[in-house]
Every structure is written in C-alpha cells, then in structure tokens.
C-alpha cells in the first residue's frame, strides 16, 4: 500500500452524466479536494455520449457539488480540473482521441502518468471498456493504472466469471478495485475495531456466548426510476450478494494476522467458504422473499412495486429478502445469522444486533422477573455508533432489575464529520489501498451462495406477491424464520 497522503492522478469517469457521478462521485471528489486529501495535481475526464462542452460539464459539476460546498468560493477552481470527452464507449476508434487527451493532461497536471478508470456505467459496458482501454493503449502509462468497477459485478457466477476473465485481459487483480460502498461506511469499518480492540468483546465473540446475530438494512425509498435494472436484479442480487454478505464476513472472520488487505481478505474468504450452502429444495426453510404493495410512507399514499415504471405488472421480482445463514466452522457452529433487507419499509436504517446468550442462572426469576439478554447494537446508519444493552438494579430499596443502555453516537460528537463512503473509497483507490474493495474470490463465493436461492425463486412464482405493505417492516413470514428458532427480530 502506498503511504503517500496526497495522491496525484487523472480520473477518467465513464458515465459522467449519470446519476451516480452527479450524486456521489463529484461531491466526494470535491470533499477530498476541499479537505486537502488529494493534491492539486489531479484532473477528471468525464465520458458519456451526450454532447456537452467543457464549460457545460464544469457547470454541471459545480451544481452537483453545491450542496456539500456550502457557498465556499473554491468550486470554480475545483471544476476547472474537469474535462468532458463525449463518445460512445462501444466504438473503439474514439479511445484514440481520449488517449491523446490523457497524455496532454498527464503533462499539464504533472500526474506522473497515474490513471484511475472509474466505470460508473451499466455493467454490460464494463468488459468492453476494459478491453478497449488495453487494445487502444490507454493502459500503457509511466505511472500506475487502476480500474474501479461499480456493482453489480455480474448477474450470477457464470456471468461474473466471464466479466472477470474479460477485465483480467486488461488489468491485473491488483489493479481492479471492485466497489462495495458499504465497505466505505464509517461503522462498517468500525466492526473490526469494535471486535479486535476490545477485551470485553473478543473473548465472547463465538458460539459459547452469542446466541444469534441480526443484520437489518431497510429502506423507505421504493425502486423509483430503476425498474429496468431492478427487474433483473431484485433485492437478493442488489443488496444481499454484496453489502449484506460483506457485513457477515466482517462480523464472522477470524482476527487477521495483520491489518493489510491480503490478510483481511483471506479471513473474509474463509467465512464465505464456511457459509452453509442452501440447496434449492431447502430455500423455503431458510429464506423469505417479499414484494411491496401500495401503502403509506410518511403519511403519503405510494404505489406498489408492480405499478412502477418499467416493471412487469405481474412481476415475480423480490423487493425484500430475509434469510438465515449458518457458518459451519468452529467459532460459529450453531449460531444463526439472520439478515433482512427491503425497499419501502417503515424506516431507513442499517443495524447489526449481536444477541448474547442468557446467563446460566437467573437469580431474579424467583421474583417473577424477566432479565433481557445483553445486546450489542452496531448502528451503521443513519445514526453511527454503538449501543450496549445491559441490566442493572432499579433505583430504590428493592433489588429489582431494569434494562439500561450504554450509548456511543458518532454524530453527536462535535467536530466529527465522518467522510462519505464514496469519499473514502475514491481516496483509497488513489492511494492504492485495496482493503475496502472486494477481491474476486469474495465475489465468486458470494455468487455461488446466492445462485441457488435465485434459481429456486426464478423457478417458482411467488403467488402471494405483493405480500407486504409499503411503510411496513416486510412480510409476516420473516418473523417465522426466527420464531422457529425461539428468537424474534429486535425492534430497535
Ligand atoms: N445511481 C446509484 O445510486 C448507484 C449506481 N450504481 C452503479 O453505478 C453504475 C451507474 O449507475 P447510474 O449512474 O445510476 O446510471 P445512469 O443510467 O444514471 O448513467 C449511465 C451513464 O452512462 C452513460 N452512457 C450510457 N450508455 C453509454 C454509451 N454507450 N457510451 C458512453 N456513455 C454511455 C450515460 O450518459 P449518456 O446518456 O450521455 O451517454 C450516463 O452518463 C451502474 O453500474 C449502477 O449499478 C451503484 C450503486 C448506486
Ligand atoms: O447498492 C445499493 O445500495 C442502495 C442502499 O445504499 P445505502 O447506502 O443508501 O444504504 C440501494 O438503495 C440500492 O438499491 C443498491 O443498488
């Protein structure tokens, strides 16, 4: 990993007029620029088809960073580093002109030939772009070259393998940065620290003391205008294959011998390998799917998934998934990890709840008192922090118990302004730190787990769809998953 703190580079963004570039990438690069994390020796080249001049492009970039710039006077200076190069990425001839532009900018901005190619476009273009970058000589540079790839990385294991083989013709694995933006979130990165820097937790982090783990990532928004993409994806591919399984891997991995990308990835891979594969015939016992119908969100009536743009009125696509995962290794045998994620739920929230086993004998039972289990809650978003649920004595003369909470909230501490996930990840890609990007082995193992479930769901219609109302916490059947093991989703 490079130790350089102010990296210099050209960043070529394919998909420069798209939603992701405008909403996430430009504001993140601006924040890096504003807080001095990247040197002034950088330039960004935007690629997309629509005809824009450099001036029009810069003005669009300025608009998209205005919400994070808060009226700062440096937005124009920032936007002056942006260049626009319109072409259709499927036409190989246009890459030669781009090559010329990059050569000029390399010398104008003294970027030492360092290049990031950021693919923020529909995945069907990923392979073509990588191939053309190589065949047209854009990857021949005096500095380093890196390919940053957005999700989804394939649609299933065979297509992911094909894509990987295609991009590996042009880039080495050590140059491929597969984005999973959850790995850039402050509290997802904190999982390792909470586990490995606290004597209080690490000795208890196993099947002797933990009864189950629950990971919930709920969204209030529906599928909006992404119906075309989502119809081919569903919640399983959109959220579980990547973000949810990455959180599982971080929660369950063994302590790495060193905090370097290779060692961390190797431990995550072992977790994914140990995850019990679910055969198609058994999917119903472990997974529940849902699709939202009409309902109310913040008091407003909203339509169901099937009424959305570019969605089949009889769609079989799931907008909600709950599942029970088992990791068959020494540490985790017998501890279910429940996951759930969905759109149009009652709140936007991502949380991990670690439920500890009950104490061997409850001295307070005799008095008819129930003692709650200890819970460690890792709040990923919107609040960032941890809450520890304990039991203590209720104030007064009698010895009775009361649940108490120890809370740590990042957002409440003055001066803490945690970087956006994309801000961190772009910075890491510029510094050459691959820790928070997914290695091919992780992608492949995740797909091989997910493929069995998606095959089972594609082969059987969900006759009860839509089976949850917009604004609810998902289908009732998801409660059954935990109830049969004697647990329930914690409503925290
Ligand atoms: N939007 C989001 O919040 C998220 C997006 N992603 C991923 O990021 C990627 C981009 O998503 P998003 O920004 O939403 O997509 P958009 O549809 O908003 O943008 C697509 C971009 O690709 C350009 N484009 C399309 N076809 C061509 C072509 N043949 N040649 C050159 N440019 C082309 C479009 O510009 P033009 O029409 O001018 O050619 C546009 O700039 C996808 O892989 C998506 O899965 C991942 C997580 C979140
Ligand atoms: O990757 C994706 O993530 C978002 C949810 O991300 P978050 O950071 O807002 O939790 C999800 O809406 C989208 O469908 C999916 O593609």
Small-molecule components bound: NADPH dihydro-nicotinamide-adenine-dinucleotide phosphate, ligand LXAUTJHC
Calculate Rg over CA atoms: 24 Å
What characterizes the major β-sheet? 8 strands, mixed
Helix content range: 25-40%
Description:
34% of the residues lie in helices and 20% in strands. Strands 8-11-12-7-13-14-15-16 form an 8-stranded mixed beta sheet, with helices on both faces. α1 crosses α2, α5 packs parallel to α6 and α10 packs parallel to α13. Ligand LXAUTJHC binds next to loops. Catalyzes the oxidation of glucose 6-phosphate to 6-phosphogluconolactone.
Question: Topology of this protein?
Answer:
Blueprint: E1 9-14, H1 19-34, E2 42-47, H2 54-69, H3 75-79, E3 82-84, H4 94-109, E4 115-119, H5 126-135, E5 145-149, H6 157-168, E6 176-178, H7 186-196, E7 210-218, H8 227-231, H9 234-252, H10 261-274, H11 283-286, E8 287-290, E9 292-297, E10 300-302, E11 320-325, E12 337-342, E13 349-356, E14 375-381, E15 385-393, E16 401-409, H12 421-431, H13 440-459, E17 468-470, H14 477-483
Parallel strand pairs: 1-2, 1-4, 2-3, 4-5, 5-6, 7-12, 9-17
Antiparallel strand pairs: 7-13, 8-11, 9-10, 11-12, 13-14, 14-15, 15-16
Helix pairs in contact: 1-2, 1-12, 5-6, 6-13, 9-10, 9-13, 10-13
The protein binds NADPH dihydro-nicotinamide-adenine-dinucleotide phosphate and the ligand O=C1O[C@H](COP(=O)(O)O)[C@@H](O)[C@H](O)[C@H]1O.
Domain Glucose-6-phosphate dehydrogenase C-terminal: 193-490
Protein name: Glucose-6-phosphate 1-dehydrogenase
Binding site for NADP(+): 15-22, 49, 88-89, 151
